[in-house]
Amino acid sequence: MLSEARQVLAHIHRPIDAELWGSDMIGALSGHGGGGNGTEVMAELATSLVPAAERDATPEALALLRILAAIGSPELQAAATPAARRVAGSGVSDQDWAPVIGSPTVGKCWHYSDVGGRQESLTVSFGYGEAEHALSVLIDHGRGGKIKDAWVGDAAGLLDKTWLAAENDPLIVFEAIEPADAGARLAKAVAAGECPSKPDEADDLTAHRALLRARVHYLAAQ
Question: What pTM did the predictor assign?
Fold first, then answer.
């Protein structure tokens, strides 16, 4: 993992790209299971990867620690945050995105669903400076409110496109919502579990699970 960090992180210049890389890495280690496997992997990273990265003490190792502190479980954050502080304090150079990673501004939030309420797509936009990204989650209420899919995309113009598409479809219900409401809905969906029905949905969830859960915690703290 440290070897991959050396190869990849030198070429990443935006905090969201760093978060997505870290989330994908954690997901690959956790596998497709959305339950205990992710928790166990986070705990293992806290006791193995974090000390190894601190010993490595390179700019890429410090970047890795910053990422783990931003999107890891509370246990992983508790280990990675002071480790990153110690490495930076020893004179290792930080990435330009290090001061802001894990702390985006919260932008507009919305959701839409079919008129029967069977499935709901919920989107929250986040910003690092002027660049905004959108985290979207597909919730299947026909299967207990579990998460069917999750993805991240460019937020520019997305709200308008979604609103226009919903306005022209009488079977779609669209509504802008407040961040607190969005966070509560996402927290409930995360607690319900996952229910991907297609391989690409399972891959999306695996890659974005850590980032999604970190954003849910972040919204709850706002």
Answer: 0.93
